[in-house]
Amino acid sequence: MPATAYFEWRKDGSRRLKNRISLAAGEPFAMAGLSDGERFTIVTCPPAATIAHIHNRMPVILAPDAEGLWLDPSKAFADVSVHLKTFGGALRAEEDSPPAPAQGDLFG
């Protein structure tokens, strides 16, 4: 699954804060996914140390040299599963700040 970022929610008490996570350099990347032809799922792994405070898992981000192998239907899962590991490169997380209540808002 090609992407430029993915979103993850960080819990802070009862609040949930949205985080946009991307490669630090901003380039696109591929996440490992599985499909049976009707359904699709993103494969997850333990989080990289730099984003572990946000969530307890993250998508598997494939190394560029593993993308073709992952997509090759002639490869057995056992041969490509070695690429299912936590991303070791630099990631950037940008947390959305909730909007401030408007003046005169019932809850502000």
Write structural notes for this entry.
By secondary structure, the chain is mainly β. It has one domain (2-95): SOS response associated peptidase-like (hypothetical protein yedk fold), CATH 3.90.1680.10. It is built from 2 helices and 10 strands; from the N terminus they run βββββββββααβ. It has helices spanning 64-71, 77-80; strands spanning 2-3, 6-12, 15-23, 29-31, 33-35, 40-42, 44-45, 58-59, 61-62, 91-95. The strands form 4 sheets. A 3-stranded antiparallel beta sheet has the order 1-4-9. A 3-stranded antiparallel beta sheet has the order 2-3-10, with no helix packed on it. Strand 2 and strand 3 form a beta hairpin. The longest helix has 8 residues, at 64-71. It is elongated and about 60 Å long. The termini are far apart.
Annotation keywords:
108 residues, mainly beta, 2 helices, hypothetical protein yedk fold, single chain, 3-stranded antiparallel β-sheet, elongated
Chain-averaged pLDDT: 90
Please report the total strand number as a whole number.
Answer: 10
Number of individual domains: 1
Low-confidence stretches: none
The first-level CATH class is given as Alpha Beta
How much of the polypeptide forms β-strand, as a percent range?
Answer: 35-45%
Protein structure class = mainly beta
Rounded to an integer in angstroms, the radius of gyration calculated over CA atoms is 17 Å
Describe the biggest sheet?
3 strands, antiparallel
Assign the CATH superfamily: SOS response associated peptidase-like
* Shape verdict: elongated
| Gap from first CA to last CA | 41 Å
What is the CATH fold-level name? hypothetical protein yedk fold
Report the helical percentage.
Answer: 10-25%
CATH architecture name: Alpha-Beta Complex
Instruction: Please write the string of helix (H) and strand (E) elements.
Output: EEEEEEEEEHHE
